[in-house]
Structures are given as structure tokens and as C-alpha cells.
Amino acid sequence: MRIVLVGPPGAGKGTQAHLLAKTLSIPHISTGDLFRANIGQGTELGKAAKSYMDAGQLVPDEVTIGMAKDRMAQADAAQGFLLDGFPRNLAQAEALDGILAEWGIKLDGVLDLEVPEDEVVKRIAGRRLCRNDGSHVYHVDYNAPAVEGVCDECGGELYQRADDTESTVRNRLDVYHTETEPIIAYYQAQGVVSTISALGKVNEVTDRAIEALKSDSSAG
């Protein structure tokens, strides 16, 4: 299956992408991983991306598209892939369609993770990380530590990332609504979008996504 996962920040895309890719036995291709891999390996696209990032500029669409195309062309993606964070805007969605048409394939589905805006703010603004080990993550409401401000695992200080404040989250949501949300309508016109609620337990959301993909494939 060839799937695009879309949703606002805080919808749980990364978690769901990992679980869905594992369940469907297809590679999870995230924009973050693409950038890290290309920059780490010193590819031409990686060097180009780094030059923009070092200058504090956005990486142009053509660089991101080039990285995604190279990754989708790798052997492990021959039978399918799950795209997470790409396409990010209409130009990238149109470019993806062009790439797939060139290869004689098409998307099987676009999963739109839906979550109320206030819930997004609550999820992200309530997040706390351990200064000693960033993999120890807590939430003031959903996964509070035994002692406020102290990591259960190592006793390290818990802190809120600068970009996890409510004002920053709402700015990120504005960017999502402006740049990324239009691709949902674009794909709806193609009849490939399944919108599912991203509320509830992680496994419940995964089950909804799998059911939606099954329905799409049977209908197609």
C-alpha cells in the first residue's frame, strides 16, 4: 500500500505512522528522517538542504521533493510506503502525483487524523521532557510524574520545550491550516481521503486507520 498520513501537530502522526508501517510491512518515510539521512550522508540534496537551514531559511520544495523521490525509489519501498510529513503543501502533493504517474502507480489512501484544536494545544503545551534524557516524556494531565517536575526514571528536572508553549502551538496550527490543510481537499477530489478521529488510546486510533484502509481497498 502507498499511503499519505496527514494531520495537525499533536495529532500523533509519528506514533501512528510507526505502528501502521509495522502492521502493513511497509517503510515509514518521514520528512525528518529524510533530512537527517541526506545531511548525515552528505548527499547533494543534503548539502543543499543544510545550506538553507544554516542560513535560517526554509528548504525549497524541490529539495524536499528530490529527497522523497530518491527514498521512494529504494528497493524496500517497491511494494509500498507510508509518507509522514510529505507532501506538506499543494506544490509537493502535485509533484508526488507526477512522480507516481511517471512510475505507473498511484496512492492507495490518504489518512487524515482529525483532532480538535483545543486538544492539540492541550497535548503539546502539557508535554514535559527530562533534561537528562529527552526520551523520558511526560504530560501534566495524561502522564504526570510521581513528583511534579521530576523524572520518575532518573530524577532529572522536567522542562517544557520553548516551542511547546500555547502561543507557539497556535502559530504552528495557523501554518498547518494555511499550508498543509489544502492538500486534504486536493486528495478528497481524487476520492482517496479517509478522515479518522485521533482521539482515544493509541491502539484505538491505529485500529480505526487500519479499518479505513481496508474499506478503501475493498471499495477500490
Overall description:
The chain is of the alpha/beta class and 220 residues long. 50% of the residues lie in helices and 15% in strands. The chain contains nine helices and eight strands. The chain has helices at residues 13-24, 31-41, 44-54, 61-72, 90-103, 117-125, 166-180, 182-188, 202-219, and strands at residues 2-6, 28-30, 81-84, 109-114, 127-130, 137-139, 158-159, 193-197. It has a five-stranded parallel beta sheet, with helices on both faces. It has a three-stranded antiparallel beta sheet with strand order 6-5-7. Strand 5 and strand 6 (137-139) form a beta hairpin. The chain is globular and about 55 Å long. It starts with a strand and ends with a helix. The model has no long low-confidence stretch (mean pLDDT 94).
Topology:
Elements: E1 2-6, H1 13-24, E2 28-30, H2 31-41, H3 44-54, H4 61-72, E3 81-84, H5 90-103, E4 109-114, H6 117-125, E5 127-130, E6 137-139, E7 158-159, H7 166-180, H8 182-188, E8 193-197, H9 202-219
Parallel strand pairs: 1-3, 1-4, 2-3, 4-8
Antiparallel strand pairs: 5-6, 5-7
Shape: globular
Count helical runs. Answer: 9
Biggest sheet record: 5 strands, parallel
Placed side by side, the strands forming the largest sheet appear as 2-3-1-4-8
Termini distance? 12 Å
- Overall pLDDT score: 94
Q: What is the count of β-strands?
A: 8
Q: Provide the structure class.
A: alpha/beta
Radius of gyration using CA atoms only: 18 Å
Q: Could you give the order of the helices and strands?
A: EHEHHHEHEHEEEHHEH
Which runs of at least 5 residues are low in confidence (pLDDT < 50)?
A: none
Share in helix: 40-55%
Percentage of residues in DSSP E strands? 5-15%
